[in-house]
Write a structure and sequence with these properties.
This protein is of the alpha+beta class. It has two domains: about 140 residues; about 180 residues, 2-Layer Sandwich (Heat Shock Protein 90), CATH 3.30.565. About 65% of the residues lie in helices and about 10% in strands. It contains eight helices and seven strands, in the order αααβαββααββααββ. The strands form two sheets. Strands 2-4-5-7-6 form a five-stranded mixed β-sheet. A two-stranded antiparallel ribbon has the order 1-3. A hairpin with a 5-residue loop joins strand 6 and strand 7. Helix 1 packs antiparallel against helix 3 and helix 4 runs parallel beside helix 5. The longest helix is centred in the N-terminal third of the chain and has 129 residues. The chain is rod-shaped. The structure holds adenosine-5'-diphosphate (ADP) and magnesium ion. Adenosine-5'-diphosphate binds next to helix 5 and helix 8.
Length: about 375
């Protein structure tokens, strides 16, 4: 090659190099543009993913809130049904008590007259017999047939036991009305002991002696309580739930004990009332039954918690009682229990709203 040719060739190569360099520079710029774009997209993706995750979390928490609300609603619904049942029961009991009251009063009111009339007739008979000791054969036969002497004695006894019976029915009717107290929508000062007594009367069938089961002893240690301002019907429902639970626990244990064991340490429910401070009353219901362990004790106020067989326990008794004592009366409901040590449920409630606390009287 000639030297000029070389020169041209070099020049050509130099130009080509320059063009290549320019192209390289351009592509470098493009690459860096692409890179920024890529970075932007990546960060956008990250933001979107994060937002998605956040919204997923929100959704999850919303879901769990909804689930809780649903459960709450179901519990409320059941409590409402239970409360409804109790108030329906109250209305029924009050209705029956009212219906029985009238006829019983007929009997009770008339027994005194029947008693007097009978005494008069017997006195008249006596007078006849004294005045005319000689009678005819027919009358003598009849006197023998009816065993007049026995009849005389027994008639008055019969009447007096009828009187005791009708007095008892009157008491029961009164107690039932007291227990039902359906007409009371407001807090009123009431005698707590009357409420406990009517509850015990209603549950008497479960505590008394039966074939194969000893009676459960009820020990009352009633203190001197003033009238307590409360929803009496609801508080009676609490007494009912607590005493019922004590009976269940005692009966469960008695089933596992021999008659000798039961007699050596009889099943017992002690009901104690007292004033614990200026405006607070305490009602304690204590059984000497099986007691419960810590795990169970921690759950007893949960709705639907029960250790009883299906069909026997609803698991609502204590949760409703808690609601009545704590939410409705501003009180406290506490459980003291240990395995083998029995169980005590202590209700503490204010005696009066501060407004009317001066007007309470002792009963
Ligand atoms: N006096 C008691 N002794 C032993 N366990 C009790 C007593 N009272 C309540 N419990 C326990 O608390 C649980 C919940 O009681 P409750 O709410 O009244 O429901 P239920 O009586 O329908 O089971 C009972 O199943 C029982 O395990
Ligand atoms: Mg119960």
């Amino acid at each position: 090659m000639e030297p000029t040719d070389w020169k041209n060739r070099i020049k050509e190569l130099e130009e080509a190099h320059l063009i290549l360099q320019q192209k390289l520079e351009i592509s470098e710029v493009e690459r860096s543009q692409l890179e920024t774009l890529n970075q932007n997209q990546e960060s956008l993706l990250k933001t979107v993913t994060q937002e998605f995750r956040d919204s997923e979390d929100i959704l999850k928490s919303k879901m769990s809130q909804l689930e809780k609300a649903l459960l709450n609603q179901q519990v409320m619904q059941l409590k409402l049904i239970e409360a409804e049942k109790m108030s329906a029961l109250g209305i029924l009991v009050a209705g029956i008590a009212h219906e029985i009251n009238n006829p019983v009063n007929f009997i009770y009111g008339n027994i005194t007259y029947v008693n007097d009339y009978t005494a008069d007739i017997l006195r008249l008979l006596e007078m006849y017999q004294n005045r005319y000791p000689e009678t005819d054969v027919e009358i003598e036969d009849f006197i023998e047939k009816i065993d007049l002497n026995f009849l005389r004695e027994d008639l008055l006894k019969t009447l007096s036991s009828m009187k005791v019976g009708s007095e008892r029915i009157r008491e029961i009717v009164l107690t039932l009305r007291n227990f039902a107290r359906v007409d009371e929508a407001e807090k009123k000062p009431v005698n707590i002991h009357e409420g406990i007594d009517s509850t015990l009367l209603i549950l008497q069938n479960l505590t008394k002696e039966k074939p194969g089961a000893r009676a459960i002893e009820i020990v009352k240690n009633y203190g001197s309580l003033p009238k307590v301002e409360c929803y009496a019907g609801q508080l009676n429902q609490v007494f009912m739930n607590l005493i019922n639970n004590a009976i269940d626990a005692l009966r469960e244990r008695d089933q596992k004990r021999s008659l000798g064991e039961i007699e050596a340490s009889p099943s017992q429910i002690a009901i104690t009332t007292s004033i614990i401070s200026e405006n607070w009353a305490k009602i304690s219901i204590k059984d000497n039954g099986l007691g419960m362990n810590e795990a169970i004790k921690g759950k007893i106020f949960d709705p639907f918690f029960t250790t009883k067989p299906v069909g026997h326990g609803t698991g609502l008794g204590l949760s409703i009682s808690y609601q009545i004592v704590v939410d409705k009366h501003g009180g406290r409901l506490e459980c003291i229990s240990a395995v083998g040590e029995g169980t005590e449920l202590a209700i503490e409630i204010p005696i009066a709203n501060s407004r009317s606390s001066r007007s309470i009287e002792l009963n």
